[in-house]
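Input set for joint prediction.
Command: fold jointly, output tokens.
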Amino acid sequence: MAERKILLGNEAIAYGLIEEGCRIAASYPGTPASEIMGTLVRLKDSESIEWLHVEWSINEKVAFETALAGAYSGLRSAVMMKQVGLNVASDPLMSAAYTGVKGGFTIISADDPGPHSSQTEQDSRFYAMLAKIPVLDPSSPEEAKNMVSTAFATSEKYEIPVMIRPTTRVCHARQDVIVKGYQHVETKSPTFEKNPSRWAATPKFRFLLHKQLNEKLREIASANEISIPGNGSTTCILASGVAWANAKEVMDELNLHDRVHLIKVNMPYPLPDSFLKTVLNAHQKVLVLEETYPVIEYQFRDRQKVSGRLDGTVPSQGELLPEKIEDIIRSWLGIEQAKRPVPEDLPTRRPTLCPGCGHRPVFYAIRKVFPKGIYPGDIGCYTLGINIGAVDTVLCMGASIAQAAGFFHSFNGNDKMPPIVATIGDSTFFHAGIPPLINGVVQGARFVLVILDNRTTAMTGHQPIPPISIENMVRACGVEFVRVADPYDLKSLEEILKEAGKYAFEDKKGIAVVIARKPCRMDRRAQHRFPEIEVFITDECNGCGYCVERFECPAISLPKKKEPAVIDPVLCVRCGVCVDVCPFEAIGVKK
Amino acid sequence: MRQQIILSGLGGQGVLFATRIIAATALDMNLHVLSSETHGMAQRGGNVVCHLKVFGGNGEGVFTSPMIRPGMADVLLAFHPEGAKLHGHFLKKSGVLICNDTKMIDATGIALKLGNGLLTNIVLLGYAVARKCLFCGADSLRKALQNASGPRAEENLRAFEAGFMEATS
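tokens >
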């Protein structure tokens, strides 16, 4: 039964996958992609969709390979991730383009122009070009859902993986969307036809596969029909994704459609040569609006008439917000700039760890016990340890451990060897932390590694972690010093960190691992009893600000310098940890 | 019908929930909705802003962008006084500001009196609809709130009425 529902872009994609009969779906969480798998998991359960295999995989590479085998078996399959997750899965991506698929295979890689929640603004469509696979660029949740159908059909017709590249403003937009349901879906039986020259191709066969891939691409390009409005304008704007959605609305309001052709590109790669030539022949001026890199623009071999990112008409970084698009269009057409209110230049609130977060005492203790340390950090909520001064580097998933080893080898033998203390979360440790830990042990590195174990993938909305003992995992990597600490017991945590420091730095024995374990307070599924300790500021408080600066709990603030701190009763969750932070014992416990 | 609404507050204040309630109301009224939300790291105690566009009904132009441009919003719902300053530039000249502060409506104070500071968002919704600045009436918003609240329906409706009364008394 079809009905209209308000869906988040990611939910719409999930509904699309189910309606299109996706059988194998795998993902690793990452903003802005996480809710796609989250919705699949929820729908599989609530609607009892038995034919759908869903999994939160250990990382994106594993997710990709798992889903790909589904497509090798003739089943419609999909993998979803954020753009930097595609970096992790890029190895199988490049090769899968050559082997091709049997069942439809859709790669959903969500980009984050801005960036809002990512290390980079990279454009996954360039990965599609690099791999030589087609990519679809939705401009709204509804279109993203419909593109799932196009992606599967194209993938099956040409036996090639197809990418859908939504951006944050599609993934986290909401729209009313028609949902058909899944009752009509026919399920297929898996078949795997052995064909070593394809599925296990050696270099000689790879050459042939590459040739086939190029032929597929040519056919897909020539079937990529893009309609050009025919009112005879000599200027045109070529746009895709949310940049199109923004341009369309601005052009509607400015009544520009009879002056300027707006051409919507749904599949930015591969573009047919004939289309590019027609655009150039029919127009004297062409503006390309796309996020985030110039993918459409680069495909013009002759860019004399073409404006965009490459000639500086469009900024080379940052999100193309509608006001920015309006400014670009006005200045490109020589129309007077819009007068609009300018935002006040106000400091925005920086994100902080939640009140009562188990990570906070760990960062506080690391800085206290190892004041002159180097602190390699990692990707997750605990990146926010930078606010407490206990995170010095954040590169990519799992890098804290390899970088700790790298800092060790760089400083080893130097008179002033700083203590190196790395932090990584539980989910990130499973994702990319195990090989570097083994490597660190093998290469004789010495540092303290604190695994911030909150029993979930918190930042992205509490996806599950593997139910595998981290202690055993760490020991199996060859680490001999493994201790578990309760971050709420600050004194004992500091003692354990000191022991770890002695083991790694004074006794020079090797890597010491401390697992700081406290379930995430925001995780509604966590079965944990948290303490209820009501605290207050005593008369001893001299307003020194140590607690605010070093502990940075959102519930404690210093309204004025040198005046007593204040505890916000709405924000405070009564964890009681701050009692042990104040050097003047000015935080008391209400009896 | 065409309305552009900015909702601004802090992470944890229920800005996303309030946006969903208004969007669901629009759907019940057979209108179209496009909105944009803040997720991820910014939700951890940072400033959260939602853009909500409602349209349809009488053939006025459709929206295609999920974002509102500065100077174009009809309504700004500020769940925290900071939101009024930080996102005030989105309001058009004739736009309406509904701000949770002691001057206009102390939604947090009212929520705390009801025994739960987390009801601030619902109190403000009740106040806004009573001020007649939203595209919808109180009854349709009430219905959407009831449908979306599950076991919290009674508590949420009490907060809604408290906000509503504040504007009408």
